[in-house]
């Protein structure tokens, strides 16, 4: 081979390497992993799916990211045969995302406080009757998805974080639509790198859902996201500051009950390299692990869906394991 031909091949190889390095500095794909408990119709995961579908479509359209969407519905044999965890892990571990991609993990369903985490809940991958070995840990999600070094990883969890799996009557909450700026989408989803993790309630608290509007946290997060998307200077820090540790009230008959979302943005930074610091954690009085619904909302229906039973003239709210919690 002549020297001139060798030099040409080396130059061509060098240019390919450079091009490959440059291409990974810009997010190309939007990978999403959406896991929802659609077996339990009372908690509004179906409505959350509509919200998430809207978010992802708008993000892709306004940023140019190519969507790679994965949806796992917890129903059927995932509940009856407890196969949810196996399918969830296979989906996460076989993801094709890599450096430069944006990855969003979203869970809406039942959850319990974790024995291994001081902060994040365990995610019930077998519905409200999930066996102890069939829970997905948030830290596992972070570890698996961050291993491939995506540019931006968002982990959003709308689930209870207490020691039981209670079901509550549906509630409603209206939201206002706001105009959104394409440039603000780019700043949030292309202008940041690192990891954001958020869950709907602190350890020991329940999270509320509604058949009409979905999870209370999901709707509140959507509110704050929209506020940033109409701003010319949007930031994830502003969203975390607005929600982290702040009480969310479901409303309706549950005006005296609250849940407090929690965020970790300590590993998130703007592309200029400035780290975003998690907002200060306010001191919050702990809530009881189970909040009993007031008598006016008790349905006293038979069957596992309602989780109420009659005891003579009394109406009892019971747990998923058929243990009596409160009677009226």
From TrEMBL:
InterPro entries: Caspase-like_dom_sf (IPR029030), Pept_C14_caspase (IPR011600)
GO molecular function terms listed in the Swiss-Prot or TrEMBL record: cysteine-type endopeptidase activity
Signal peptide positions on this chain: 1-27
Domain Peptidase C14 caspase intervals: 86-244
A biological process from GO: proteolysis
Pfam families: Peptidase_C14
Protein known as: Peptidase C14 caspase domain-containing protein
Lineage, broadest ranks: Bacteria, Pseudomonadati, Pseudomonadota, Gammaproteobacteria, Thiotrichales
